[in-house]
Amino acid sequence: MLSRRSFMKYILFFFIILNFNISASECDVTHSEGVNKLTICDIKGKKVNFLDITGSMNDLAYYHGKFLAKDILSGVIASVAKRRDDSFKALAKKERNQFKAIYKCVMNKYKKSVDPKFLSELSYLAKGVRDAGYNLSGREVIEATLMIEMSGFVDSLNLEMEEDRRGTNWRLIKSCGLHIASASIKNIFSTIGGGFKKMKKGCTGFSASSDFTVDGSHLHGRNFDTGFMGVFEKYPVVINHRNSEGVNYMGMSSAGLHYPGGISGMNEYGISISTHELRTKNYKIKYKDRVGIVAPYAANLILSKAKSLDEAITIAKKFGYFGAWSFLVSDSKSGESASIEISGDIVRVAKRSSGSMGQTNHFLHRDTARYNFEYSLNKSLESRARLSLVNDELAQSRGQIDINWGINLLSGHTDYLVGQRSFGRTVSKVYTSMTHIMDTGRNIFWFSLGESYPTNLSTFIGLEVSFDQEENFFRFKGSERNTSFDNSSWKKSLEYFTNAYFVYEGDGDLKSRLTQSYELLKKASDLAKADNIVEYPYEMMRARVGLKIMSEFPNLISSLELDSVFETLLSEVGNLHNFEVAQVYESYARYNDLLNRREQASKFFAKAVSELESLREEFNNHFYFNKQYWTNYWFIKHRYSKYDNRVEQLHFATVE
């Protein structure tokens, strides 16, 4: 006679064979207590967790911790802690102690600002892990959770230090005490900022009502772009919460993040939500009366309570926020969507409409936009380019939109400003960790499996969700995939570029990281050229990584073939955006200075300034653009050295 566990495994496997066209898929109920259970499915060699929990948020947190304990210890919580600690290590001892004082001050203010029930909930997750036989403290979970807000604080403070060090020092003294302020505080935030930027999120989203779709479905899709790619998609968790404190909902998360609405999800009333991170100078670190909330948790609260779009907006406006976010919320009952923008204590509905809507990573409402900033001009350009492309595609495809359209859009490689591209200002990013598309009228949830990179060119799995089904909350609906780029060397090049990003941002000694990343970029370039395509992102990042190698390991210069790389880049300037042309000239000028060819370097720094000049009127209030402009202007007369190059931060996501 079969045991209950063996019987469930047999039934699930039989069900998959009948209803799912991917072979070698197998599901097993690995943990269960009462009605709560964890099912693990092996799909194309990728493990996917399905967590089905009945009860309160404390119950959800506890069983998330208990059933997924092993994955949690290797997942996002551990990764956040490591990046924080690595950022500390990058500082000299005195500066490290100063920043630790700032960190402790801000963390304490966050903890005193949020609802104690939220902190208790996070402690329940840690308790679940401990009850499974592992070690994890509530403090570790709480601080890892709050770090997502602190990354925005560090970015904002870094900008403020550049603009007004004295004034920013005074605000820090007022907030956290005199003992942390010093002349070196600007350097602290400049150094620490690189590590904290790795915690950022990007994300492109869209919604399309039944008036726009071919089959009457209501779709809400999003790319989850995150500096934690390599972690989030490694431990995926589909969560179904039969909520005793509100409405039933489901969504997709990763081991260690028990509230799936913090990424994307849908509920039984046709409400769906996705979160998108931005940057603001109107950050907050303290609220009275415990009204503060971590934005992704607020998104989950909306999902777990709201029965209409109006209710979702009302809930969002109840709280005080720390950083900069937008929530794309959609209601399949009315066909409406809204973009709720959050800038510290400012909450505004930037857009609300029936039909369709795009969402990226910059503010649109005048009250939030006044505090908006991006860390580079290309970040500003790429967010606006993605939004323009999504909105144009929605308008042009009215009446033709379906799940395949959504998959193709979110896995697309078109730069709105220049045409087909591998990465950069494209909807598909080098750090797209997950892609979700929700058909909220029919309760169907699609997600990228991520069995290969880029993740959004991998297999998409469809789940038909039953919020009121007692035994199993889902059944497999099928699988889909973007096949547009199949059988091309260019498609293979995308994976090499992604791996170059992984290596550059990863662990290991500097020499290995730089040289391995460079070799992977060269392979990406060669594969693209095999299809007669010159990819600017590959060549530019080869140039930038190559310059790093020149500065750190000059004995390797002859092996880099950088003359050939720059020859390719210079031959492409007629096909590039003005800002990219400026980057080519700037990089080539640096290369010449590092080779002691000052006259040639000065000439190309001047050419870079000339290209940037054409953008000054449009971006005259963009701090980082102006900084780049005047830095290039300075180097027309002054030599760029290896020490200047060593402090340059490279961004694979925006290709700079």
UniProtKB/TrEMBL annotation:
It holds the Pfam family AAT. Gene3D superfamilies: Penicillin V Acylase, Chain A (3.60.60.10). InterPro entries: C45_proenzyme-like, DCD1A/B-like, Peptidase_C45_hydrolase. Residues 219-399 form the Peptidase C45 hydrolase domain. This is Membrane protein. It comes from Halobacteriovorax marinus (strain ATCC BAA-682 / DSM 15412 / SJ) (Bacteriovorax marinus). The lineage of its organism: Bacteria, Pseudomonadati, Bdellovibrionota, Bacteriovoracia, Bacteriovoracales.
